[in-house]
Amino acid sequence: MARAAGTVIVVGTGLAGLRTAETLRAQGFEGRVILVGEEKYLPYERPALSKELLAGKRSAEQVMLRKPEFFEQEQIELVLGRRVEQIDAERRVALLDDGRELRWDALVIATGARARRLRGLETPAGVLYLRTLADSLALSEELARGKRLAVVGAGFIGVEAASTATALGLEVTIVEPMEAPLERVLGTEVGTLLAERYRAHGIDLRLGAGVTGFSAGEDGHVRAVRLDDGSEVACDVALVGIGAEPAGELLGVGEIATDASGRTALPDVYACGDVASTWRASLGRRVRVEHWTNAAGQAAAVARTILGEESVHDDVPFFWSDQFGLRLQHVGFASEWARVEIGGGTNAFSARYLDHDGRLLAALGANRPGEIAALRRELKANARASVERRRAPELRPALSLP
Ligand SMILES: Cc1cc2nc3c(=O)[nH]c(=O)nc-3n(C[C@H](O)[C@H](O)[C@H](O)COP(=O)(O)OP(=O)(O)OC[C@H]3O[C@@H](n4cnc5c(N)ncnc54)[C@H](O)[C@@H]3O)c2cc1C
């Protein structure tokens, strides 16, 4: 697209949306940039929602990524509190929920993900989810009123919220159907090590336990979580943290498949961040990751590609998590591995996830910041060795597109 003219519409005011818009400007794009978001807030730091904001260490204003004047200076048009309901790829038009139609020359879908809902169970007042700033503020209020928190799901968000609530003085129970916390991403061995630490911090950790429902008091507010062994966990507030679902509904899908530069199957329509499943030559497959650094990197690559500088984000995946006095740092990507080597104890350890040939696929450091750079280099070298053999498959448009 020409740098001097044209309109780029970015749907979603999360990190990926913001980073796309600001990179377009930083690269000298002079046309219109319109950032549309269904949340009423300016783009903010989502990771703070389970950490500093929930802990009361930072205010809502302090988690904003940019000040209001930034958008004026950069001439980024903000449309907040409005949802893009539909897109018409042939007419190149985005239809907003107030009936407005916006025309684009390039469209970027940065709609992220939403908290997965518990299906088939009635949830009384006081049963909450945590994905948005509004969710975090609502949870803060409930934590201030209550003494006992029940967390359903020992994933990253549930565990971080549990850690914050414990530091605030609440009694916390975590209910998890698997054998260990964070098992899906970190495996049983590391999960078991972490379970020890959570228990040492006073968490009542119920593993291998399913939730069958919630009980409410006469006021209609949650009073207990019912488990499949017939027991109940008494609580004043419950947080459901059972993962996130990509918000790709504008293309009639969940996750949106893209090439290495963020192009979808539709001309001049791109996707990046949590919603995108992007081709990574280093891994030889498309992956969708819900990581802050990935959203930032992909968005910058999409902005450059729109302006004609073909660009790819294929860094070694990285995320961090703060919980119970541990800074976890994870590098690489492994959905399965042959074995895990763990060194250290519950206060500081590292874990190496290896394939059958002993090759490093991913690694985790817990309070071991000094090791991460070397692990990243090792993973990068492994990826380079195999990258040449891999080619991206063709993209096919989703069947339900208008
Ligand atoms: C509580 C929490 C803690 C986290 N902590 C960490 C961490 O410690 N480390 C880490 O690496 N990652 C962390 N993450 C993940 C990280 O925040 C995400 O990977 C990142 O925010 C993804 O950015 P995104 O812009 O792709 O999506 P999002 O941040 O989800 O933003 C998408 C935006 O698009 C909007 N939207 C969706 N559909 C539409 C539509 N049709 N019209 C208009 N707007 C729309 C949504 O409302 C949302 O505002 C955390 C996430 C959460 C929820």
Explain this structure.
Helix 1 (15-26) runs parallel beside helix 7. The strands form 7 sheets. The protein has a 5-stranded parallel sheet. A 5-stranded parallel sheet has the order 9-16-10-11-12, with helices on one face. A 5-stranded antiparallel sheet has the order 22-23-26-25-24. It is of the alpha/beta class and 402 residues long. It contains 8 helices and 26 strands. The relative contact order is 0.13. The structure holds flavin-adenine dinucleotide. Residues 11-17, 36-39, 46-47, 49-50, 83-84, 110-113, 130-131, 157, 247, 250, 273-274, 290-292, 295, 319-321 line the site of flavin-adenine dinucleotide.
The number of distinct β-strands equals 26
Strands in their spatial order, largest beta sheet: 3-2-1-7-19
Query: Which residue ranges are poorly predicted, with pLDDT under 50 across at least 5 consecutive positions?
Result: none
Total discrete domains: 3
Instruction: Provide the β-strand percentage band.
Output: 25-35%
Q: Just give the CATH class of the largest domain.
A: Alpha Beta
| Helix/strand/pairing category | alpha/beta
Overall geometry comes to globular
Task: Report on the biggest sheet.
Answer: 5 strands, parallel
Write the CATH fold name of the largest domain.
FAD/NAD(P)-binding domain
Summarize the structure.
Helix content is 24%, strand content 30%. The chain has 402 residues and is an alpha/beta fold.
Task: Name the features.
five-stranded parallel β-sheet, 3 domains, alpha/beta, binds flavin-adenine dinucleotide, 26 strands, 402 residues, FAD/NAD(P)-binding domain, Enolase-like, domain 1
